[in-house]
Amino acid sequence: MLPDWPRALGQPLVSGLLKAEPKDFVVEEVFDVEFSNDGEFDWLWIEKCGDNTEYLAKQLARLAGVQPRAVTYSGQKDRHAVTRQWFCVHLPGKHKPEWVVPENETWRILRQGRHRQKLRLGSHRYNRFILRLTALHGDLTDLETRLQSISQGFPNYFGEQRFGHGGGNIEACRQWFAGELSPGRFDRGMYLSAARSLIFNTVLAQRLSDVSWNQGLDGDVFSLRDSGSVFLAEVDADIVSRLTAGDIHPTGPLYGKVGKLGVGAVVAELEEQVYTGFSDLCAGLMKNNLTMERRALRVVPKDLQWQKLEDGSLSLAFSLPRGCFATALVRELINY
Question: Which of 24, 82, 93, 113 falls between 20 and 30 A from 319, CA-CA?
Fold first, then answer.
């Protein structure tokens, strides 16, 4: 079981349902594409529901008569949701397929084009979410206050889906590291990500408990808002001002071998204490030659809007940087 990591706004006073139906959770990649109309790559803008990204990539490979590795995408998307994302199929020397979606499939092609460039992992910058929270009960007046606070930023936890049902990906990762499991390449990547995410969430939880998740500490590495760029700086008046404005965020570790930029002082001590509790995971991550990366502890949603609907449900619309989880926002708002 996963811990119930602390929230920035305390325990919500309202309970409800998230994803009562797949149509209650819509996510779309924000990614402008200008096709070259030539080249070896077919790009497909696909809406799906009920299928995970990897499954659909294999379906496209089968339709095109190519190996699965010839199909790429920018990011993984939820299975139990309505999602819209780009896929890319490498077709060197092949005629362009008709791309007829088989009957009884739960996906459809909304747009397509030919390009000389390959779609690579992490190419899109944002995801746009439209959510509907249903069966709400409790102190509904608390929602407005929380939404106003969330619009200024919320803890950038990895969502529970990263860890598998009941945290199963973590258990499988430990079995793999102990030599009791031999996963395939895709599963290995999933387990490594889950292990790093667990360590990150634990560091973030500690800094929430210390009320330092949105403040600078001695030795912090900071991240530019909505960017992967990081820098080490002393906490002075300028850093405090930029933190308050949401221009920069403190960061936490995506564990691995120390890279060019490391934390120091108070932050190094705090993170080392967390690593001690995950010695088996840390050892396994090191053995797999991962390099330490940094991830923002806080994320500010773009264009957060909300509306109470006539049936008593709540509609939310917002954008988050790639790799951030809508469920981390929702858990600050309601118990779901």
Answer: 113
